[in-house]
Amino acid sequence: MLNFEIEEFVKENKNGKEAWTKDAINLGKRFIQHLIATDNQLSGKVTKTVQPEWVDNLEFEIEKVQTLIKKIDNSQEQIKKFTEQSNQFKNELIEENSLKDLLFESGKPLEITVIKGLEILCYKAENYDDGELELDKIITSPENDRFIGECEGKDNKAIDISKLRQLSDEINEDFEKNDYPEEAFGLLFGNSQRLFVPADRSEFFTAKCLSAAKRRNIGLILTTDLFKVCKYLSENKNIPFKKKCRKAIKNGIGGVITFP
After folding, report:
1. Domain residue ranges of the chain, discontinuous segments joined by +
2. CB–CB of 180/138 below 8 Å?
3. pLDDT recorded at residue 133
4. What is the pTM (predicted TM-score) of this model?
């Protein structure tokens, strides 16, 4: 058994955190050297004798060796720094690339990305669950318009009336439960035929879905259209355009929303 849990090997650094002492680091380096030497001998790479501990005594130190050790330590620090920076860039890449979920996802991943897209348009969007009433999204605009949203993704079909019927029921329940003077508007975010290239998709919403949306005053938004808007806004700071998009959603209630 190897025991490195030795009290003298740990001290408090300038930041008040625990850190290895110089003796502990030197022991660690020697331990690694022994492992490498043992591996080399067992694999037949070299036939040198494993270096004894006393060789590291100060009287046998070589100045250039110490200089090289410092250079190696500095290099390791730089590697650590660049690795952390690289990991940060990777996380940012994943976050930015998640907008593409609007093109092909369904279920919870689609819901999450729709919320992100709405936030890009300056809406406040969040899931709602008070134990009695559970809603996909409560959406509020800077103009104080209030919406209830639902998402639906279909592999190779158009969005049908079933999810719109569910959304209509949620709007009624929300109106009965809360003290708002008017019903919230409904928004159905549809990703129809999601496994096809967007240009090859044909029917987005069924005729019944379109008819019911008009009758129940619910807006229909294609997530592929929302992607185009969000892609543009991620590359261009255009606040007036965001306002135009919100206006298009408000004015387009009752049919398929057409963005500017």
Report:
1. 7-96, 99-251
2. no
3. 62
4. 0.70
